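Category: protein sequence paired with discrete backbone structure
Discipline: computational structural biology
Format: plain text, a pair of labelled lines
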Amino acid sequence: MGFALSDMQLTSTAFAQGGPIPKQHTGEGVDVSPALSWSNPPEGTKAFAIICHDPDAPLVSPGGTYGFVHWVLYNIPADVTSLDEGSSEFTNGKTDFGAEVYGGPMPPNGHGQHHYYFWVLALDEQVELEPGLTMWQLLKRVEPNLVGMNRLLGTYERL
């Protein structure tokens, strides 16, 4: 299918689409992942994955990747349609902090407002993936099984 938006919806009780991410979900706060829920997955969905990526981060790697990855979570079964705040369930991938856990927004002081894309990916197969995949490794591995995706955008700025 490739990477195209679907009718699936991703929401959070912590912030609205395009709204500010509360401090408790950032590196300046408790640094706990926000509660997320999703609905209307494509027919045939067997698993999900979650990603949080900041494309505004001024980082480009030699491999051509860009931005900063704050969360990679996968091996989520199809009967799961939400994650509680601070959820530690399922399989964590590696963030650009070098950790296998959610790491909230923490742009450089005075760098302006950053945009944080929380993505939900729907897969047509329960692909058992090992812990520690980067976002880019995960995307490469699941692309053949991707049947839908959508995003929730939040913002944050350190003053």
Remarks:
- Residues 2 and 143 are 6 Å apart (CA to CA).
